[in-house]
Amino acid sequence: MVQAARLLVVPGAMTHKFGISQPVRRSEDERLITGTGSFTDDVNVSGQAHAIFLRSSHGHGLIRAIDAGEALNAAGVIAVITGEDLRAAGVGYIPYLPLGGFTMDPPADTPRPALAQDRVRHVGEPIVMVVAETVAQAIDACEKVLVEIEPLPAVTDIERAVAEGASAVWPDAPNNVALIWRHGDHAAVESAFTQPLL
Length: 198
What we know:
This protein is of the alpha+beta class. It is about 20% helix and about 25% strand. It has a single domain (about 45-195), classed as Aldehyde Oxidoreductase, domain 3 (Alpha-Beta Complex), CATH 3.90.1170. The protein is built from six helices and nine strands; from the N terminus they run βαββαβαβββαβαβα. The strands form three sheets. It has a three-stranded mixed beta sheet, covered by helices on one side. The longest helix has 9 residues, at about 185-195.
């Protein structure tokens, strides 16, 4: 599902280091592509465990059941964690952090748990995390997790997502607009939208 956000910007009003359509010079590429950098997968410590995530193959759907029993009993498995486990442990949601210097309409309530709870909202959303002694054991156990998802209508482009009657990703955002950012002279931008093109 696609959520739309409308960014209204007055030309020349950007005072930040970066923004939409502005190039961002990268400084880390040379060391990473020449083999002199370090990735998290390069770090190995004694006794470490490995995690593999089972992700949604549906763009939108209700999670009806998760059966992790066989995975829990697989060789080398330390833990199998679901969104319900996180909720029961009191783990909160990933917070939304607005950009500085922008005004924003109050955002819709779009709670984002680290692992899907109740429903999935995009392909690839993490549903279950399997922790095991080795990567191979974690992969093998993850393949034993059974997830039942009831598919819901999914929209894959912005125009259809904000159309009247489109399937809503979040109940608090029935038109699939979670928030609106504003920067610069909002009235001038709105006026420019009404001017005829030359």
